[in-house]
Write a structure and sequence with these properties.
Layout: E1 9-14, E2 31-34, E3 38-39, E4 45-50, E5 57-59, E6 66-67, E7 72-75, E8 84-93, E9 103-110, E10 116-127, E11 137-147, E12 156-157, E13 175-176, E14 189-190, H1 193-211, E15 214-217, E16 221-225, E17 234-236, E18 240-244, E19 250-251, H2 254-274, E20 280-282, E21 287-293, E22 300-305, E23 315-322, E24 328-330, E25 339-342, E26 350-358, E27 366-368, E28 372-375, E29 391-396, E30 404-406, E31 408-413, H3 426-447, H4 449-452, E32 456-458, E33 464-469, E34 475-480, E35 490-497, E36 503-507, E37 513-515, E38 522-530, E39 536-539, E40 543-546
Parallel strand pairs: 3-11
Antiparallel strand pairs: 1-11, 2-4, 4-9, 5-10, 6-10, 7-10, 8-9, 10-11, 12-14, 13-15, 15-19, 16-18, 17-20, 21-22, 22-25, 23-24, 23-26, 26-27, 26-28, 29-31, 30-32, 33-34, 34-37, 35-36, 35-38, 38-39, 38-40
Length: 548
């Protein structure tokens, strides 16, 4: 079996007009090679270009190479050029900046019956990827020996190979990086699939070696954080350390790798600590260190402990209660602070002072200090007693049975009731009386028939209503209740779309209720009246209505 004698070619570029004028020399140049040996009457030969760069590559985006000029038989002399041919040239792969070489397939013939060394001239277009233009045409001389006759072993192509490959040859502590790369199917041919795949794998490793970086890992980086998710009664009082171990991040230089680890600490550290059960200590109660009244007896100045972060991250409530009048005075302090003042106090009186801390870590938790008694200097003015005026409220009996409506009664607190006396103002005395009325006493009075003479009235009759179409896009629904005695506490219109199954309700009243429904759907309606404190007193018949 004869071997190829010469499998490479030199590109000689010509002017864009396809003339034979020599193009400026390319260094190091582009060379065409093919598998060896080459036989006629077998599968097409594969021609691969090497040496392509961004400065100069073969442009096959618009046309495949063409045989250009005469075929030259170099040897032997008794073989005619007419017995040699090349046809069916096709593009199998473009060169790209990622490193894929341009490849072509072509059929060759040698009908002389003698092995011949021949030179083909191929015409190709070139492209400058840096300038994104095509400088011109190139004539490629491709010399190869074509062996006619015996059939060679079947050549098979490789499977697609994607690694992964790691860059080789890095100096410790650097390690090899990787880049995504795939050697396409049938990039290499050999007598067996295993040999073809081995060539593809080797090519992939070479590509990664040339394009991947050597990488170095980070050193340990850490930060301390306070737990912000402690349970009620606790706060993050002990710092917790979050650490990124060495070699968790890799980069081409130590600074970048370490910065990646530092960013991990800064972005993930607090969340990690919050998810731990460590670093939480008992939330201490605030302490009033000093409570000093001013000489004029109108202000108390306080110094406080445990009222700043992290024990107090929400707000403070500092208050003083006048022991004589029970009037409450608040400090103007809202945020966390180690000091506070309460002003506007009455000289000569004694005040009960306390501080409450609200911790924003858990809104349901607060801590209140022990109270401090602070007598103010000066002479207290005599107490003035303020009494309430007449106060009342209307309440409806709500313990009637089903089908009954309770009557309404008025519950009254007479003027000058001692129980509601105030040392602050008449308004404060009235407020105390109203709190008693609305705090349950009024309703209890209405439900006590013996005291209030309230009654339960039987309700009867079935409500009726009409449905009136209100024009395109909706209807008006008017409820009519001629058989329902007053009082009726509430009423409700219920509806259901039989097309979609959607349902809803609208509050009803004596004059009717309108709503908007979907044209072309069928609806069912019914109307319900309710007595106060009872189940429904009557339900209408269901009406079906089609929305035109």
């Amino acid at each position: 079996m004869k071997r190829i004698l010469f499998l490479w070619s030199i590109i000689i570029c010509s002017i864009a007009a396809k003339a034979q004028t020599q193009y400026p020399s390319i260094s190091p140049g582009i060379v065409f090679t093919s598998a060896s040996p080459i036989y006629t009457n077998t599968q097409p030969i594969v021609i691969t270009a090497t040496g392509e760069t961004k400065d100069l590559a073969i442009d096959v985006s618009s046309d495949a190479p063409q045989v250009y000029g005469a075929i030259v038989v170099n040897s032997p002399s008794n073989v005619s050029a007419s017995s040699i041919g090349m046809s069916g040239i096709t593009v199998t792969q473009y060169w790209t900046p990622t490193g894929k070489a341009s490849t072509f397939k072509a059929n060759v013939t040698n009908t002389s019956g003698i092995a011949a060394k021949v030179t083909f001239t191929l015409l190709v277009m070139t492209i400058d990827y840096n300038a994104l233009n095509s400088p011109g045409f190139c004539t490629v001389t491709y010399t190869v020996t074509i062996n006619p006759g015996s059939q060679p072993p079947t050549q098979v192509g490789n499977d697609a190979q994607s690694g992964p490959w790691t860059k080789q040859g890095c100096t410790p502590p650097y390690i090899g990086g990787t880049v995504a790369h795939t050697v396409p199917m049938n990039s290499f041919y050999a007598a067996t699939k295993a040999l073809a795949n081995a060539q593809a794998v080797a090519a992939g490793q070479t590509f990664v070696n040339n394009n991947a970086q050597c990488l170095i890992g980070n050193v340990a980086e850490s930060g301390t954080f306070y737990n912000q998710s402690c349970t009620s009664g606790y706060y993050g009082g002990t710092p917790v350390t979050y650490t990124v171990q060495p070699n968790q991040y890799y980069a081409a230089d130590p600074t970048t790798a370490n910065n990646l680890a530092i960013n991990d600490v800064n972005t993930k550290g607090q969340t990690w600590v919050n998810n731990q059960s460590t670093g939480c200590v008992v939330l201490p109660a605030p302490v009033i260190q000093t409570a000093v009244p001013t000489s004029d007896g109108t202000t108390i100045n306080l110094t406080l402990l445990n009222t700043t972060a992290p024990m107090a991250t929400g707000a403070l409530q500092v208050k003083a209660i006048d022991n004589a009048t029970q009037q409450i005075y608040y400090s103007g302090t809202n945020g966390t602070s180690s000091t506070a003042s309460i002003s506007g106090l009455t000289p000569g009186r004694t005040f009960t002072v306390s501080v409450t801390v609200y911790d924003s870590q858990h809104s349901s938790s607060d801590n209140t200090s022990a109270t401090v008694q602070v007598p103010m200097p000066g002479n207290a003015p005599p107490l003035i007693t303020y009494q309430n005026t007449l106060q009342s409220g209307i309440f409806t009996k709500n313990d009637c049975g089903a089908g009954y409506q309770g009557s309404s009664v008025t519950f009254t607190v007479q003027p000058n009731t001692v129980a509601y006396n105030s040392y602050i103002s008449v308004a404060d005395a009235n407020s105390k009386a109203l709190a008693y009325i609305n705090g349950g006493a009024g309703q209890a009075y209405a439900n006590n028939t013996a005291l209030s003479h309230s009654t339960c009235t039987a309700l009867s009759g079935i409500p009726t209503f009409t449905v009136t179409y209100g024009g395109h896009g909706g209807i008006a629904i008017f409820a009519v209740t001629p058989n329902i005695p007053t009082p009726v506490s509430t009423s409700m219109l219920y509806w259901k779309d039989t097309t979609t199954g959607q349902s809803g309700s609208s509050p009803g009243n004596a004059s009717g209720q309108s709503d908007v429904f979907t044209d072309g759907h069928t609806y069912q309606f019914y109307f319900v009246c309710y007595g106060s404190g009872t189940p429904s007193t009557g339900t209408s018949a269901t009406q079906t209505y089609y929305m035109p």
